[in-house]
Every structure is written in structure tokens, then in C-alpha cells.
Amino acid sequence: xxxxxxxxxxxxxxxxxxxxxxxxxxxxxxxxxxxxxxxxxxxxxxxxxxxxxxxxxxxxxxxxxxxxxxxxxxxxxxxxxxxxxxxxxxxxxxxxxxxxxxxxxxxxxxxxxxxxxxxxxxxxxxxxxxxxxxxxxxxxxxxxxxxxx
Length: 149
Description:
By secondary structure, the chain is mostly helical. The chain has helices spanning 8-19, 23-35, 48-114. It has three helices and no strands. The longest helix is centred in the middle third of the chain and has 67 residues, at 48-114. It is rod-shaped, with a radius of gyration of 49 Å.
């Protein structure tokens, strides 16, 4: 035996139980009917489709909202993981950079230690201008008309 609610109020209560609608939504639906001058003890038959649609939409919105909250929580967690990975990589890069700088300093010390300690002479100015071709003072001799050939 099934129980068919007859009044609008009974139908609203039944749909609220079936969909798990919050009390605030139930009160809004009731207020809508009373604001239009429709008593809640009126027969619900002409309003059944509209009431079912309203409660179904509210349930879908609530479910979407819950899914969105879960997705936001996942996104927040993923952003936290990305941030942590960035910090880890940055610290690893800094360690590698300091290690390479230390190696460079050691290699420079070895190179300097291996060089002979001689005196260095520094000449100021542009040295490229000092390099010229050598010129000869002796001119080639060509025999003249009276000289033996």
C-alpha cells in the first residue's frame, strides 16, 4: 500500500525526505506558495511536476557543489605538491651550483699552483701596432748596360 500525499505541505515534506533537501530550501518553497496566496493544505496534484523538478534541481546543485568542493580540495593539494617540488628542485639546484663553484675554485688553485713563478713584465699600450714587416736596406742589383751580363 502506497501513501499518496494530498496536500502541498505533505508533498513538500515527502520530497524533502527523499532528496535530503536542507530546511532552508524547504522553507523557501513553502514561502513561495504562501506569498502567491496558495494555502499549503491545498491539493498538490497540479503542482507535482513543478515541486519534483524544484527538489530534483536542488539535489543536483547540492551534489555538484559537493563535487566542486572535493575538486577544489584536490587542486589545493596538487598546488601544495607542485610548490613543494619547486622548493625541492630549487634547493637541489643551489646545492649543485655551490658544488660547481667549489670545484671551479679548486681547479683554479691547481692551475695556479702548477704554473712556474716567473717574473711577469707588463708592457702598456697596444702591442699589435709594434709588429711590422722587416724592411731591407739592400736594393736588388740589376746589371747596367756597360757592366758584364
